[in-house]
Amino acid sequence: MPRNPSTGVYSKPAGTTPSVGQVIDPVPWNALTTDLGNEITNSLPRDGSAPMVAPLKAAGGTVSAPGVGFASTPQTGLYLKGGGLLGFSQNGVDVAFDKGMVYVAKSGDYTALASDDNAVHRFTADATVTLTAAATLGANWHYAVIADGGDVTIVPNGSETIDGTATLVVPDGYSAFIICSGSAFFSNKLMTRLLSKADSSAVGDFVVGLILSNNSGSPNTHVDFAAGSARSGSSFVSNSSSITKRINGTFAAGPGAAGLDTGSVAASATYFTYALRKDDDQSFDVVLSTSATIAGVNTALLTGYTIVKCIGVVLTDASSNIRPFILYPRDEYTFVTPVKDAVSAAISTTSALLALTVPNGLKAKAKLRFEFTSSATTNAALLSDPAQGALVAGAGTDGANVGTIQLASGFAVGSQEIWTNTSRQIRMVLAGSTGSIWIWTDGFHFPCGRSS
User: What pLDDT score does 288 carry?
Assistant: First the structure.
């Protein structure tokens, strides 16, 4: 055919350019008219009455003169960018196209690649996402992470950062959008805003869940902490699953690790348990300390952690084992085996202090039962909060809470919940004469702010 298929240039067939007076040869002229008819048929009608039957090949063009444009606005249209990429020009300005979004579910660790630009990955378990070097991914590379079954830790390459830090943790149930600048990574700040809101001091002070219990496999040395959350002032931490800490060793991070802030486990001691929040990923942990206040906790092993709130207490016995206990709503503890804190102890009209098996270093409300005997048939005992001072037992004075002896050397019984002083003590006194008393400690109330 006379039209060059590569260039589109039409050339007339040979013998179709006659001179004056020359007789026209019908063969080449018939070929010419046939070719012209074919080429007209193969041309695209300007009125759009017929479609193309093969791909339309447009000029590559530029951003200011696109290969496919419009007569009224010649600087708006499609053009070919470098690298074979399609560009869209609007009034001479390039408008970028995004790649198609791709969704993939993941169940383990993953390295995000350049091909994951505009991908959405949903992680169904705890996982670590390692980002390829920012220079390789390039500016404008972006990626979405959904944590749906576990926490997802996003780790940039080498010394690169995300939001200026070494890692970004997306807690289970949340998501994050990541974008690359070509040298660093940034998120949409969703986690930052959520954590900022979580640390608002206006929300309150509380413990939800985080119930303590003896570990079923190693009850003498291990304590289980149920899922829950804690807040104190502007600090908040939560944990979606239970963890176990042991008291026979100094603190190490993570479930199953030791938890003492310092030293070794002691006999007949009180260990306060404190909820910790790891500063870089907001994860939950627990430290145990003999200090009744956060200020007294030894923090040498707690670099990178914030101590949020005291969430409970465990007591050890004479063998340095954890006393078996049950924790009920509103921070009420009951010993599996009641403790005999007085066995035929002498009691008289002189007020005296008696130490109980309850937390040391702060006031607790002891759950007590008593049995009292005296040779005097009209004698009665009074056990009380030391904060009331030295009370005087008897019907004519401050009363009693262990019944009057009806038979000399018989027994009277009673029970009461009594607040101790910070040295674990209560006061006891008789209305008259002398006697002996037995005291069982069934447990105690240790208020941490837990309502259920």
Answer: 98
Number of alpha helices (DSSP H) and beta strands (DSSP E) in the chain: 3, 30
pTM: 0.62
Give pLDDT, residue 109: 97
440 and 341 Cβ atoms separated by less than 8 Å: yes
Question: CB–CB of 257/246 below 8 Å?
Answer: yes
Angstrom CA distances, 372 to 267, 355, 394, 403, 425, stand at 29, 17, 15, 8, 18
* 45-58 b/e (C-beta count within 10 Å ≥ 16 → b): eeeeeeeeeeeeee
Q: What is the mean pLDDT of the chain?
A: 90
Give dist(CA 251, CA 403) in Å, integer.
Answer: 49
Predicted confidence (pLDDT) at residue 198 exceeds the cutoff of 60: no
Q: What's the burial of 219, exposed, middle or buried (CB within 10 Å: 0-12/13-18/19+)?
A: middle
Q: Look at phi and psi of residue 134 and say left if phi exceeds 0, alpha if psi is from -120 to 50, else beta.
A: alpha
Phi-psi region of 41 (alpha: psi -120 to 50; beta: other; left: phi over 0): alpha
Over residues 391-400, mean pLDDT: 92
pLDDT computed for residue 384 by the predictor: 97
Confidence grade of residue 104 (pLDDT, cut at 50, 70, 90): very high
Determine the Cα–Cα distance for residues 200 and 155; give it in Å rounded to an integer. Answer: 27
Token pair listed for 248: 């026979």
Instruction: Report the 10 Å Cβ neighbour count for 251.
Output: 23
Strand order in the sheet with 332-347: 325-328, 332-347, 435-445, 365-374, 411-419
Top pLDDT among 96 and 26 is at 26
pLDDT of residue 195: 60
Return the H-helix or E-strand segment holding 30: helix 26-41
Determine contact, residues 132/112, Cβ cutoff 8 Å: yes
